[in-house]
Design goal:
Structural class: alpha+beta
Strand order of the largest sheet: 1-6-7-5
Largest sheet: 4 strands, antiparallel
Number of helices: 10
Order of helices and strands: EHEEEEEEEHHHHEEHHHHH
Strand content: 5-15%
Oligomer: single chain
Length: 412
């Protein structure tokens, strides 16, 4: 059992902080302890230490465990890189105290990985969060993930089968490409609802799950060693210019989105044998259209009750303050109409300029594009002279403000 002689961690709020851990706590919990074992469930990996807490790792999209002077990376760089230590994007490095010592590092350039410290007995790790919320592992839990168990799980859900497989609460460890591979092997369309699969399809799916997952683990996920007939060998042409999206036998590879993930399928092999999500959406839209047509027919029929309702509403409105009615006067849109409108406005201005609207007997009653009502006769000069100036006129003269319609009280 190797003993950890040195630990160095640099805090990352995503990798450590989001799961309630810190780099300092991680260093303290591992230093001087012995590594008893290493375990795995689905996408989780943990070290069994000589005493709690035990470090639990989720690698996320790009996390990885590196060992110095040993090639372990499953992401092959496009350009050859010079070996450096510690490696880029490291979150912690540790080395053992034995001779010869070994050096290890956890790297994650996308920072989707998570590092936890679980304080429990080693044998209870799978009975506490987050492991207890995950389903059985196809490789580690063959005795649990039986055909009967899978049939019950599939029939109890009404979701696309691909989405069910990707949900870690159902089965641990199946990721996107693994899900596509085992569905291709089972000849099942990923969009088909899980509870519409036939007994023969469910039996084949159980066999395909164990075959694909066990083979990938036995080959240490080295894709170069995967069987040539696997979809994995030919699915990566999407988005690449002039790359054929077909199998060697000519079968076309198609891409659809299921469960929020891009899924590769071979339509000639993976037939739809039951209801799928796309069919349900299409059927629902047809029902909505039929319902809309029925509503239109109903609207064309005479309705007596709504008429009475409108009358009642009118009676209620009579008791409320009257609202301002919108003017029915249309704005001229043609050039001829615009010219006529301008002439009318000039005529109105000319007549209003000749009327003192402040005088109680003066009034300008003018209509546009209809007949014109002439203003009432003006008072004579003698009548005007006998009347005192209005207050408004005095205020206007003293303040210097102009009025739009003013008649001098002395007739000038």
């Amino acid at each position: 059992m190797p003993e950890i002689g040195e630990v160095k961690a640099q805090h990352d709020e995503n990798v450590f902080g989001k799961v309630g851990t810190s780099a300092a706590e991680f260093e303290k919990s591992l230093l001087g302890k012995k590594v008893v074992d290493a375990k795995q469930q689905g996408k989780y990996f943990w070290l069994v230490m000589s005493s709690p807490p035990h470090p639990l790792f989720h690698f996320g999209m790009a996390g990885w465990w590196k060992i110095r002077d040993l090639e372990t990376a499953y992401y092959k760089p496009t350009k050859k890189e010079e070996p450096t230590w510690p490696p880029k994007y490291w979150k912690f490095i540790l080395e053992t105290s034995d001779d010869p010592k070994s050096e290890h590092a956890f790297v994650d350039f996308r920072r989707f990985g998570r590092i936890r410290l679980v304080d429990c007995a080693a044998e209870e790790m799978r009975n506490v969060s987050p492991l207890k919320e995950n389903g059985p592992d196809p490789v580690a839990d063959k005795d649990i993930l039986t055909e009967e168990w899978l049939v019950q799980k599939l029939q109890s859900k009404h979701v696309p089968v691909k989405a069910l497989l990707l949900d870690q609460a159902n089965i641990s460890g199946i990721g996107n490409w693994v899900g596509d591979e085992l569905l291709y092997n089972a000849k099942i369309h990923p969009e088909q609802y899980s509870n519409t699969l036939s007994p023969a399809q469910m039996k084949q799916l159980h066999e395909s799950i164990h075959y694909v997952c066990s083979t990938a683990v036995e080959l240490l996920a080295e894709s170069d060693r995967f069987p040539e007939e696997w979809l994995f060998k030919h699915r990566w042409a999407k988005g690449k210019k002039d790359a054929p999206q077909r199998l060697p036998n000519g079968a076309k590879i198609k891409f659809v989105t299921v469960g929020g993930r891009t899924s590769a399928i071979v339509p000639s092999v993976q037939k739809k044998t039951g209801e799928v999500a796309a069919d349900v959406k299409e059927r629902d839209s047809e029902e909505e259209e039929n319902g809309a047509e029925e509503d239109e027919v109903e609207e064309q029929k005479p309705k007596s009750k709504p008429k009475r309702k409108a009358q009642e509403d009118g009676e209620e409105d009579d008791q409320k303050p009257a609202s301002k009615k919108k003017s029915n006067k249309k704005t001229p849109t043609t050039s001829k109409g615009k010219k006529q409108a301008r002439k009318d406005e000039e005529a109105i201005t000319a007549q209003v300029d000749g009327v003192d609207t402040s005088h109680p007997t003066a009034e300008a009653n003018i209509t546009v594009n209809g007949g014109k009502k002439l203003p009432k006769p003006k008072a004579t000069k003698s009548e005007e002279a006998s009347k005192p100036p209005t207050k408004s006129s005095k205020r206007d003269e003293s303040s210097g403000r102009r009025r739009s319609a003013r008649i001098s009280t002395n007739g000038k």
